[in-house]
Every structure is written in C-alpha cells, then in structure tokens.
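Why should sequence recovery work at all? Because a backbone constrains its sequence more than one might expect. Tight turns favour small or flexible residues, buried strands favour hydrophobic ones, and helices have their own preferences. The token representation captures these environments compactly. In the example below, the structure is given first.
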C-alpha cells in the first residue's frame, strides 16, 4: 500500500480536537439510537463500553498522529459514511449493535492505517461485545428449557421451605390461589450472557495480574446472574396470585431492569475486592 502523497499530508493533519469531535458525534448518535430501542440493558452496556474505550485511549491521545495510507484512509472514511447512513435507518437492536464496531474500525483506519489496527485490539473487542446479540447466548448454550426446569424446582423448594404452600409440576409453580409458568425466556440466559460481557469489559478496563483470578471472574459472573434470577422468579411467583400489577412491573416494566442493575453492582463490588487484593 502506498503512503499518502506529500502534498496531501497538510490537508489531513487535522487538529486532534476535530478527531475527538468526530468520535464524540459517533458516540452520541449511537447512544441516542440505543436509548430509542427501549432496551435498558443494551443502553447501559453501551454506556459502559464507550466509557471503557475512551478510558483506554486516554493515554494514547496526546501521542496520536496520522500514520495512515491513502487506501486505508479512504476505507476508513467509507466505514464512517456507512455508520452515518446506517444510523438513519437503524431500527431495533439488530441495526444498532454493529454501528460502534463500524465507527471504531473506520476511525482507526483513517488515522493509523492497516498496520496500526493491532494497537487497538482491546478496543475492538469492547466494541465487538455490543455487536454480539443477546439471543446468541440462547442459541449457543441451548439450555433454556433445561435451565427453566431447574430454576422451577429450586424456587419451588425454597418457597416451600420458608412456608409457602406450593407444588411443582414441570415448569409450573402452583399455589392455592393460582400459579405461574417459568418459560424458557425466564431461564435468565440473557442475563447470564449479559454479565459475562460485563466481566470481559472489566477485565480489559481494569486488568488483573493473576491469571487464576482472570478465569474466576466470568465464572463468578455466571453464578451471580443465576442466583439473582432465582430471586427474581421467586418474587414473581409470590406476587402473581395476589398482586398482578406488581407482577407486571417486575416482569415486564422498569422493575426488570432493577435486577440487572443489582447484578452489575454486586459484580462490580466483587471485582473491586479483587483489585484491592492485588494492590495490597
């Protein structure tokens, strides 16, 4: 690949402030589209990913220089154009999830060229996390139905143990005044994959020195998501017969986001404890 002609270099040496402005515009566009999807989990994950990307690039920013070739700059500009055009017609998570990776790759090619991409591999992983749909975990694991049955039995036992009159039949929980069905969507696979993504973000943003601890982090994330989903199903089971309004709020309304928020906070506290152990 040929380097940029010497007479074009002064035109492309735009102050870093312009590059930061362009990156900020792309981030604002994506976050606006993410908020319009109505998916609070995806919007929160987007905020976390962009914070992690900018935090990682902060130390590189003062030394950032144009080191791209003509071809790489044109391809990068084209990807940014695709980002802008795609944002005009993006609808739902499917159209929005890929945009950060397109924009990030376009900016990296425009500034650093093909040879400079390797220095941003961690940032590409972070942006790629958003591109992975939540449904992928269900299709890969393919354990939603089995997990729903296990959760039903565990929740039924816990409720019986603390004094509720409950019986279990398959994925049904029966009370004297009604019951609920723990379907595959209630198995919490989306929450499992969601917290695994959060664990990867934490590992890249705040790396741990111990390799053993790095392997433990995703496992703890899975355990936390599973335990919190047990509490969620148990709460819904108790509310369903007598408090249908509260059931809808915690099942479909903003209450469902509270459980995800609590999981992330608990996981953050756990990860902070690991960081403190290494610093001491």
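From this structural description, the recovered sequence reads:
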């Amino acid at each position: 690949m040929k380097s940029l002609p010497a007479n074009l270099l002064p035109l492309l040496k735009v102050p870093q402030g312009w590059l930061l402005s362009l990156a900020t515009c792309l981030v604002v566009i994506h976050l606006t589209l993410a908020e319009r999807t109505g998916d609070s989990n995806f919007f929160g994950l987007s905020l976390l990913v962009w914070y992690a990307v900018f935090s990682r690039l902060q130390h590189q920013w003062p030394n950032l220089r144009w080191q791209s070739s003509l071809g790489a700059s044109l391809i990068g500009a084209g990807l940014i154009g695709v980002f802008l055009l795609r944002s005009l017609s993006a609808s739902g998570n499917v159209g929005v999830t890929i945009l950060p990776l397109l924009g990030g790759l376009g900016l990296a090619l425009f500034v650093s060229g093909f040879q400079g991409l390797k220095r941003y591999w961690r940032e590409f992983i972070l942006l790629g996390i958003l591109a992975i749909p939540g449904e992928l975990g269900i299709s890969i694991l393919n354990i939603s139905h089995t997990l729903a049955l296990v959760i039903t039995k565990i929740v039924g036992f816990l409720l019986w143990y603390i004094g509720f009159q409950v019986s279990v039949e398959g994925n049904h929980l029966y009370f004297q005044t009604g019951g609920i069905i723990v379907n595959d969507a209630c198995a919490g696979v989306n929450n499992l994959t969601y917290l695994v993504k959060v664990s990867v973000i934490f590992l890249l943003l705040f790396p741990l020195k111990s390799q053993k601890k790095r392997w433990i982090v995703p496992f703890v994330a899975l355990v936390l998501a599973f335990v919190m989903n047990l509490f969620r199903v148990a709460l819904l089971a108790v509310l369903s017969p007598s408090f249908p309004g509260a059931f809808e709020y915690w099942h479909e309304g903003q209450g469902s986001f509270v459980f995800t928020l609590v999981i992330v906070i608990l996981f953050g506290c756990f990860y902070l404890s690991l960081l403190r152990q290494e610093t001491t």
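A few observations help interpret the result. The first strand starts at residue 167 and ends at 169.
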